What we know:
By secondary structure, the protein is of the alpha/beta class. The protein has helices at residues 4-12, 17-36, 73-83, 86-106, 119-123, 127-138, 151-156, 158-171, 187-192, 202-205, 212-227, 240-249, 265-273, and strands spanning 39-48, 54-65, 69-71, 113-116, 145-150, 174-180, 197-200, 231-234, 253-254. The radius of gyration is 19 Å and the shape is globular. The chain starts with a helix and ends in a 5-residue tail after the last helix.
Amino acid sequence: xxxxxxxxxxxxxxxxxxxxxxxxxxxxxxxxxxxxxxxxxxxxxxxxxxxxxxxxxxxxxxxxxxxxxxxxxxxxxxxxxxxxxxxxxxxxxxxxxxxxxxxxxxxxxxxxxxxxxxxxxxxxxxxxxxxxxxxxxxxxxxxxxxxxxxxxxxxxxxxxxxxxxxxxxxxxxxxxxxxxxxxxxxxxxxxxxxxxxxxxxxxxxxxxxxxxxxxxxxxxxxxxxxxxxxxxxxxxxxxxxxxxxxxxxxxxxxxxxxxxxxxxxxxxxxxxxxxxxx
Length: 278
Ligand code: C2E
Ligand code: CA
Ligand code: CA
Ligand code: CA
């Protein structure tokens, strides 16, 4: 598919020594940033295409460095993945997101929160136990947590991944395949994995409704989702025309700047629950 060239570039980019130094420095600063409280989560609403209701929130990490300012995740997540720091960072994200969902739950607000999980985190032997303990500590019903996994995580060692997914499913947490369409899931695996949802990658939403291959891919994913009884959500929706295409295609939900950018918890509450805002 058309994205493969770009991701191959991302993983095999030749690196110069300055690059290496810059990445080491960034990694060092990141580790300090975690203890210094410079990380925060933003929440982006997930909206039903049928009812227009906000039915969930994706937690997205932010780093505000006092000297560098805001550093976007695309810059520091790959460095954290390479150094292994993503595991500690991911634990923090999981805990923070679960605490937030629990706080809403205690306030009578049922809002499932989706958390991005990286490969290294998912492969940790203690991952399932960590999820279980985190939910218990916060007293959050497991179905109010969703884990977003990528195709590459699931296909690396598919049998081991399947075992782990089944353990997570037994806890009752939701699971979705993120950036769907950019990797290559086989239909056989999709059928076996105990997941509930496919997230159509933004790269296929961008060209809607005019780009014929994007339109075809999106239609195919929606049909695949319906054949496999999976909920389908599209990310990166910026225009009315994109939203209308997705609604007509039979997609269930969308996420994107058209409705809202990722917001801090207070802004999210204001937007979603304040009586005046409707
Ligand atoms: P992703 O999981 O595909 O997340 C969606 C990204 O699209 C987010 O970027 C979000 O802010 C952005 N986005 C949402 N709506 C729109 C839109 O309408 N238009 C455009 N152009 N962009 C939109 P963000 O927050 O910069 O995150 C980038 C990536 O970094 C994420 O992609 C995810 O792979 C990773 N990431 C973010 N937070 C975490 C985290 O807590 N843990 C892990 N492991 N990865 C994370
Ligand atoms: Ca995601
Ligand atoms: Ca992703
Ligand atoms: Ca994406």
